[in-house]
Amino acid sequence: MTKFKPSMLSLALLASCAVSTATSADTLVEQQAAYKAKLTQKLDATLAPAQNFDLSKMKINLPIADHKPARKGQVMEIEVDELNDKTHPYTNHFWFYTNPENGAMVMTSPNTAPTTKNSSNARSELRIMLRGEKTEIGPKHPSNNFVVAANPNKDKYGAVGGQMSATLSVDWVSTSGDDSKFPTHSVVVGQIHGSSKVEPLKIYYRKLPNHEHGSLFWNYEIFPKDINDRYDVPIPIWGSAELTKADANPDNGIKLGELFSYDVTVADNIMTLTFVKNPGTDAAETKVFKTDLSKPYPGHPLDQGYGNDWMYFKVGAYNQCNQGTKHPVWGTGCTNNGIEAGDYTQVSFYELDLKQ
Predict the structure, then answer these.
(1) pTM: predicted TM-score of the whole model, two decimal places
(2) Could you tell me which of 272, 263, 275 has the C-alpha nearest to residue 352?
(3) Are 253 and 237 in contact (CB under 8 A)?
Protein backbone atom coordinates (compact mmCIF):
# COMPACT_ATOMS: atom_id res chain seq x y z
CA MET A 1 0.00 0.00 0.00
CA THR A 2 1.58 3.23 -1.06
CA LYS A 3 -0.86 6.06 -0.56
CA PHE A 4 -3.62 7.28 1.72
CA LYS A 5 -6.52 9.51 0.80
CA PRO A 6 -9.23 11.08 2.96
CA SER A 7 -12.51 9.24 3.35
CA MET A 8 -15.40 9.45 0.88
CA LEU A 9 -18.90 8.19 1.56
CA SER A 10 -20.29 8.41 -1.96
CA LEU A 11 -20.96 4.66 -2.23
CA ALA A 12 -21.42 3.63 1.39
CA LEU A 13 -25.08 3.72 2.37
CA LEU A 14 -25.20 4.59 6.04
CA ALA A 15 -28.06 3.69 8.33
CA SER A 16 -28.04 4.30 12.06
CA CYS A 17 -30.43 3.07 14.71
CA ALA A 18 -31.47 5.54 17.36
CA VAL A 19 -29.61 5.32 20.66
CA SER A 20 -31.62 5.41 23.82
CA THR A 21 -30.75 8.61 25.66
CA ALA A 22 -32.46 7.21 28.74
CA THR A 23 -29.72 4.63 29.31
CA SER A 24 -27.48 5.96 32.10
CA ALA A 25 -23.75 5.27 32.13
CA ASP A 26 -24.08 2.91 35.10
CA THR A 27 -26.96 1.03 33.51
CA LEU A 28 -25.02 0.69 30.27
CA VAL A 29 -22.01 -0.77 32.08
CA GLU A 30 -24.28 -3.28 33.82
CA GLN A 31 -25.98 -4.25 30.55
CA GLN A 32 -22.63 -4.60 28.78
CA ALA A 33 -21.37 -6.90 31.52
CA ALA A 34 -24.57 -8.94 31.44
CA TYR A 35 -24.38 -9.42 27.68
CA LYS A 36 -20.73 -10.46 27.84
CA ALA A 37 -21.62 -12.96 30.57
CA LYS A 38 -24.40 -14.33 28.36
CA LEU A 39 -21.94 -14.89 25.53
CA THR A 40 -19.38 -16.56 27.78
CA GLN A 41 -21.99 -19.06 29.00
CA LYS A 42 -21.70 -20.69 25.56
CA LEU A 43 -17.92 -21.04 25.94
CA ASP A 44 -15.83 -23.48 27.98
CA ALA A 45 -12.73 -21.80 29.44
CA THR A 46 -10.98 -25.18 29.77
CA LEU A 47 -11.08 -25.95 26.04
CA ALA A 48 -8.89 -24.90 23.10
CA PRO A 49 -10.22 -22.24 20.69
CA ALA A 50 -11.16 -24.82 18.04
CA GLN A 51 -13.33 -26.61 20.59
CA ASN A 52 -15.37 -23.46 21.30
CA PHE A 53 -15.46 -22.03 17.77
CA ASP A 54 -15.91 -23.62 14.36
CA LEU A 55 -12.44 -23.26 12.83
CA SER A 56 -12.86 -26.21 10.47
CA LYS A 57 -12.17 -24.02 7.43
CA MET A 58 -9.40 -21.91 8.92
CA LYS A 59 -5.64 -21.88 9.32
CA ILE A 60 -3.69 -19.38 11.42
CA ASN A 61 -0.50 -17.35 11.09
CA LEU A 62 1.30 -16.45 14.32
CA PRO A 63 4.04 -13.85 15.04
CA ILE A 64 6.87 -16.37 15.51
CA ALA A 65 9.23 -18.26 13.22
CA ASP A 66 8.00 -21.61 11.94
CA HIS A 67 9.89 -24.69 13.13
CA LYS A 68 8.85 -26.93 10.25
CA PRO A 69 11.72 -27.62 7.77
CA ALA A 70 9.49 -26.86 4.78
CA ARG A 71 8.79 -23.37 6.16
CA LYS A 72 12.28 -22.47 7.36
CA GLY A 73 12.65 -18.70 7.50
CA GLN A 74 8.90 -18.11 7.25
CA VAL A 75 6.24 -17.07 9.72
CA MET A 76 4.52 -19.76 11.78
CA GLU A 77 1.54 -21.30 10.00
CA ILE A 78 -0.77 -23.79 11.68
CA GLU A 79 -2.82 -25.66 9.09
CA VAL A 80 -6.48 -26.57 9.38
CA ASP A 81 -5.86 -30.17 10.48
CA GLU A 82 -3.43 -29.23 13.26
CA LEU A 83 -5.56 -26.33 14.43
CA ASN A 84 -8.55 -28.67 14.75
CA ASP A 85 -6.74 -31.82 15.89
CA LYS A 86 -9.27 -34.03 17.69
CA THR A 87 -6.84 -35.06 20.45
CA HIS A 88 -4.69 -31.97 20.89
CA PRO A 89 -6.24 -28.95 19.11
CA TYR A 90 -3.69 -26.19 18.69
CA THR A 91 -3.18 -23.44 21.22
CA ASN A 92 -0.31 -21.07 21.98
CA HIS A 93 0.13 -19.68 25.47
CA PHE A 94 1.27 -16.27 24.21
CA TRP A 95 -0.41 -15.59 20.87
CA PHE A 96 -3.52 -17.76 20.43
CA TYR A 97 -5.37 -19.22 23.38
CA THR A 98 -8.59 -19.47 25.36
CA ASN A 99 -9.09 -16.89 28.10
CA PRO A 100 -9.08 -19.06 31.27
CA GLU A 101 -11.67 -16.83 32.93
CA ASN A 102 -14.36 -16.47 30.27
CA GLY A 103 -13.58 -18.78 27.33
CA ALA A 104 -13.01 -16.04 24.76
CA MET A 105 -10.63 -16.78 21.89
CA VAL A 106 -7.65 -14.47 22.38
CA MET A 107 -5.22 -13.38 19.65
CA THR A 108 -2.19 -11.28 20.54
CA SER A 109 0.57 -9.80 18.39
CA PRO A 110 3.70 -7.77 19.27
CA ASN A 111 4.81 -4.65 17.41
CA THR A 112 7.66 -6.44 15.66
CA ALA A 113 7.92 -10.15 14.83
CA PRO A 114 8.21 -12.52 11.87
CA THR A 115 5.32 -11.89 9.50
CA THR A 116 3.97 -12.86 6.10
CA LYS A 117 5.39 -11.90 2.71
CA ASN A 118 4.60 -8.36 1.54
CA SER A 119 3.82 -7.14 5.07
CA SER A 120 5.81 -5.27 7.71
CA ASN A 121 3.22 -5.91 10.41
CA ALA A 122 2.99 -8.89 12.74
CA ARG A 123 -0.25 -10.78 13.21
CA SER A 124 -2.16 -13.54 14.91
CA GLU A 125 -4.74 -14.04 12.20
CA LEU A 126 -7.02 -16.75 10.85
CA ARG A 127 -7.31 -17.24 7.08
CA ILE A 128 -10.41 -18.92 5.66
CA MET A 129 -9.57 -22.10 3.73
CA LEU A 130 -12.67 -23.28 1.88
CA ARG A 131 -11.00 -26.62 1.09
CA GLY A 132 -10.85 -27.46 4.81
CA GLU A 133 -8.35 -30.21 5.65
CA LYS A 134 -7.68 -31.09 1.99
CA THR A 135 -4.18 -29.62 2.31
CA GLU A 136 -3.15 -30.93 -1.10
CA ILE A 137 -5.20 -28.03 -2.49
CA GLY A 138 -3.08 -24.89 -2.40
CA PRO A 139 -4.18 -21.56 -0.90
CA LYS A 140 -4.46 -19.89 -4.34
CA HIS A 141 -6.48 -22.67 -5.94
CA PRO A 142 -9.90 -21.44 -7.16
CA SER A 143 -11.75 -23.99 -5.03
CA ASN A 144 -10.20 -22.42 -1.92
CA ASN A 145 -11.39 -18.88 -2.58
CA PHE A 146 -14.51 -16.90 -3.48
CA VAL A 147 -15.58 -14.37 -6.08
CA VAL A 148 -18.50 -12.05 -6.74
CA ALA A 149 -21.27 -12.96 -9.20
CA ALA A 150 -19.82 -10.77 -11.94
CA ASN A 151 -16.65 -12.86 -12.17
CA PRO A 152 -16.67 -14.53 -15.63
CA ASN A 153 -15.14 -17.72 -14.17
CA LYS A 154 -17.27 -17.91 -11.04
CA ASP A 155 -18.15 -21.60 -11.56
CA LYS A 156 -14.53 -22.56 -10.94
CA TYR A 157 -14.39 -21.07 -7.45
CA GLY A 158 -15.25 -22.45 -4.05
CA ALA A 159 -18.03 -19.94 -3.44
CA VAL A 160 -19.78 -16.91 -4.87
CA GLY A 161 -19.88 -14.51 -1.94
CA GLY A 162 -20.06 -15.51 1.70
CA GLN A 163 -20.66 -14.22 5.20
CA MET A 164 -18.40 -13.74 8.21
CA SER A 165 -19.60 -12.27 11.50
CA ALA A 166 -17.99 -11.71 14.90
CA THR A 167 -18.59 -10.28 18.35
CA LEU A 168 -15.36 -9.13 19.92
CA SER A 169 -13.47 -6.67 22.06
CA VAL A 170 -10.13 -5.03 21.42
CA ASP A 171 -8.30 -5.33 24.73
CA TRP A 172 -5.13 -3.43 23.84
CA VAL A 173 -3.37 -1.54 21.05
CA SER A 174 0.19 -0.26 21.00
CA THR A 175 0.82 2.86 23.05
CA SER A 176 3.99 3.83 21.15
CA GLY A 177 4.42 5.26 17.67
CA ASP A 178 3.88 8.32 15.49
CA ASP A 179 0.30 9.38 16.12
CA SER A 180 0.22 11.49 12.94
CA LYS A 181 0.07 8.25 10.89
CA PHE A 182 -3.30 6.53 11.00
CA PRO A 183 -2.07 2.89 11.33
CA THR A 184 -0.32 3.74 14.61
CA HIS A 185 -2.21 2.56 17.73
CA SER A 186 -4.46 0.38 15.55
CA VAL A 187 -5.31 -3.23 14.81
CA VAL A 188 -7.16 -4.84 11.90
CA VAL A 189 -9.78 -7.25 13.26
CA GLY A 190 -11.28 -8.51 10.01
CA GLN A 191 -10.66 -8.24 6.29
CA ILE A 192 -11.33 -9.47 2.79
CA HIS A 193 -8.05 -10.00 0.98
CA GLY A 194 -7.75 -10.00 -2.81
CA SER A 195 -5.54 -12.22 -4.95
CA SER A 196 -2.84 -9.56 -5.20
CA LYS A 197 -1.65 -7.04 -2.60
CA VAL A 198 -5.02 -5.29 -2.47
CA GLU A 199 -7.89 -5.62 -0.01
CA PRO A 200 -11.46 -4.47 -0.63
CA LEU A 201 -12.01 -4.49 3.13
CA LYS A 202 -10.00 -3.99 6.31
CA ILE A 203 -11.79 -3.27 9.60
CA TYR A 204 -9.71 -1.08 11.92
CA TYR A 205 -9.91 -0.27 15.62
CA ARG A 206 -7.65 2.61 16.68
CA LYS A 207 -7.20 4.27 20.08
CA LEU A 208 -4.82 7.06 20.96
CA PRO A 209 -2.98 6.57 24.31
CA ASN A 210 -4.42 9.75 25.83
CA HIS A 211 -8.00 9.02 24.70
CA GLU A 212 -10.64 7.09 26.63
CA HIS A 213 -12.42 5.87 23.49
CA GLY A 214 -11.14 4.35 20.28
CA SER A 215 -12.34 4.78 16.70
CA LEU A 216 -13.77 2.10 14.44
CA PHE A 217 -13.43 2.55 10.67
CA TRP A 218 -13.04 0.44 7.55
CA ASN A 219 -10.84 0.81 4.51
CA TYR A 220 -11.60 0.12 0.87
CA GLU A 221 -8.43 -0.23 -1.19
CA ILE A 222 -8.44 1.03 -4.78
CA PHE A 223 -7.49 -1.77 -7.22
CA PRO A 224 -5.81 -0.01 -10.19
CA LYS A 225 -4.24 -1.46 -13.33
CA ASP A 226 -0.83 -0.40 -12.02
CA ILE A 227 -0.54 -1.85 -8.53
CA ASN A 228 1.80 1.00 -7.56
CA ASP A 229 -1.15 3.41 -7.83
CA ARG A 230 -3.20 1.70 -5.14
CA TYR A 231 -4.35 3.57 -2.03
CA ASP A 232 -6.85 3.24 0.81
CA VAL A 233 -10.17 5.02 1.24
CA PRO A 234 -11.02 5.15 4.98
CA ILE A 235 -14.69 5.23 5.93
CA PRO A 236 -15.48 6.26 9.54
CA ILE A 237 -17.95 4.24 11.58
CA TRP A 238 -17.52 5.69 15.09
CA GLY A 239 -14.75 8.20 15.64
CA SER A 240 -12.23 8.94 12.89
CA ALA A 241 -9.13 7.43 11.29
CA GLU A 242 -7.37 10.78 11.27
CA LEU A 243 -7.26 11.68 14.99
CA THR A 244 -4.01 12.57 16.74
CA LYS A 245 -3.17 13.07 20.41
CA ALA A 246 -3.93 16.77 19.97
CA ASP A 247 -7.55 16.02 19.04
CA ALA A 248 -10.41 15.64 21.49
CA ASN A 249 -11.45 12.20 22.69
CA PRO A 250 -13.96 10.60 20.27
CA ASP A 251 -16.82 10.36 22.76
CA ASN A 252 -18.92 8.34 20.33
CA GLY A 253 -16.21 5.69 20.04
CA ILE A 254 -15.56 2.35 21.72
CA LYS A 255 -13.43 1.74 24.80
CA LEU A 256 -10.83 -0.98 25.14
CA GLY A 257 -12.55 -4.12 26.40
CA GLU A 258 -16.02 -3.06 25.20
CA LEU A 259 -17.89 -5.42 22.93
CA PHE A 260 -18.84 -4.59 19.37
CA SER A 261 -19.83 -6.75 16.44
CA TYR A 262 -19.49 -6.81 12.70
CA ASP A 263 -21.10 -8.77 9.90
CA VAL A 264 -19.56 -8.92 6.44
CA THR A 265 -21.90 -10.32 3.79
CA VAL A 266 -21.01 -10.57 0.10
CA ALA A 267 -24.10 -11.51 -1.93
CA ASP A 268 -24.07 -11.40 -5.73
CA ASN A 269 -21.82 -8.35 -6.22
CA ILE A 270 -22.73 -6.38 -3.10
CA MET A 271 -20.64 -6.23 0.06
CA THR A 272 -22.85 -5.29 3.02
CA LEU A 273 -21.12 -4.31 6.26
CA THR A 274 -23.13 -4.16 9.49
CA PHE A 275 -21.52 -2.83 12.68
CA VAL A 276 -23.11 -2.78 16.13
CA LYS A 277 -21.82 -0.78 19.09
CA ASN A 278 -23.04 -1.78 22.57
CA PRO A 279 -24.66 -5.00 21.30
CA GLY A 280 -27.20 -6.60 23.63
CA THR A 281 -27.95 -3.33 25.45
CA ASP A 282 -30.62 -0.63 25.33
CA ALA A 283 -27.98 1.66 23.80
CA ALA A 284 -27.18 -0.64 20.87
CA GLU A 285 -26.35 1.36 17.75
CA THR A 286 -26.11 -0.09 14.24
CA LYS A 287 -24.49 1.28 11.09
CA VAL A 288 -24.70 -0.33 7.65
CA PHE A 289 -22.61 0.25 4.50
CA LYS A 290 -23.09 -1.23 1.02
CA THR A 291 -20.50 -1.39 -1.76
CA ASP A 292 -20.74 -2.93 -5.23
CA LEU A 293 -17.45 -4.80 -5.52
CA SER A 294 -17.92 -5.45 -9.22
CA LYS A 295 -17.71 -1.74 -10.09
CA PRO A 296 -15.11 1.00 -9.59
CA TYR A 297 -15.48 2.91 -6.33
CA PRO A 298 -17.30 6.17 -7.19
CA GLY A 299 -15.04 9.19 -7.33
CA HIS A 300 -11.90 7.07 -7.85
CA PRO A 301 -11.31 6.66 -11.60
CA LEU A 302 -8.22 4.47 -11.21
CA ASP A 303 -10.22 1.74 -9.50
CA GLN A 304 -11.20 -1.33 -11.54
CA GLY A 305 -13.31 -2.91 -8.81
CA TYR A 306 -13.01 -6.57 -7.80
CA GLY A 307 -15.31 -8.15 -10.38
CA ASN A 308 -12.49 -10.17 -11.92
CA ASP A 309 -10.55 -10.89 -8.74
CA TRP A 310 -10.70 -13.77 -6.25
CA MET A 311 -10.80 -13.17 -2.50
CA TYR A 312 -10.80 -14.71 0.97
CA PHE A 313 -11.83 -13.71 4.50
CA LYS A 314 -9.35 -13.12 7.34
CA VAL A 315 -10.01 -12.43 11.02
CA GLY A 316 -7.83 -11.82 14.06
CA ALA A 317 -5.31 -9.38 15.51
CA TYR A 318 -3.31 -7.84 12.64
CA ASN A 319 -1.13 -5.32 14.49
CA GLN A 320 -0.61 -2.17 12.42
CA CYS A 321 2.40 -0.98 14.44
CA ASN A 322 5.95 -1.55 13.22
CA GLN A 323 9.37 0.00 13.83
CA GLY A 324 9.78 1.45 10.34
CA THR A 325 9.84 5.21 9.91
CA LYS A 326 10.59 5.90 6.23
CA HIS A 327 7.21 5.22 4.66
CA PRO A 328 4.99 8.34 4.83
CA VAL A 329 1.93 6.30 5.87
CA TRP A 330 2.90 2.80 7.01
CA GLY A 331 6.17 3.61 8.80
CA THR A 332 4.63 4.02 12.24
CA GLY A 333 7.83 4.24 14.28
CA CYS A 334 6.58 2.09 17.14
CA THR A 335 8.95 0.63 19.71
CA ASN A 336 9.15 -3.08 20.47
CA ASN A 337 9.95 -3.28 24.17
CA GLY A 338 7.57 -6.10 25.00
CA ILE A 339 4.10 -6.58 26.40
CA GLU A 340 5.07 -4.98 29.74
CA ALA A 341 5.82 -1.75 27.85
CA GLY A 342 2.49 -1.85 26.00
CA ASP A 343 4.05 -2.67 22.64
CA TYR A 344 1.45 -5.15 21.42
CA THR A 345 -2.18 -5.57 20.41
CA GLN A 346 -4.77 -8.03 21.74
CA VAL A 347 -8.24 -8.98 20.55
CA SER A 348 -10.80 -11.31 22.20
CA PHE A 349 -13.53 -13.03 20.19
CA TYR A 350 -16.77 -14.11 21.88
CA GLU A 351 -18.58 -15.12 18.67
CA LEU A 352 -17.20 -16.02 15.25
CA ASP A 353 -19.35 -17.44 12.48
CA LEU A 354 -18.55 -18.27 8.86
CA LYS A 355 -21.19 -19.14 6.28
CA GLN A 356 -19.48 -20.01 3.03
Answers:
(1) 0.93
(2) 263
(3) no
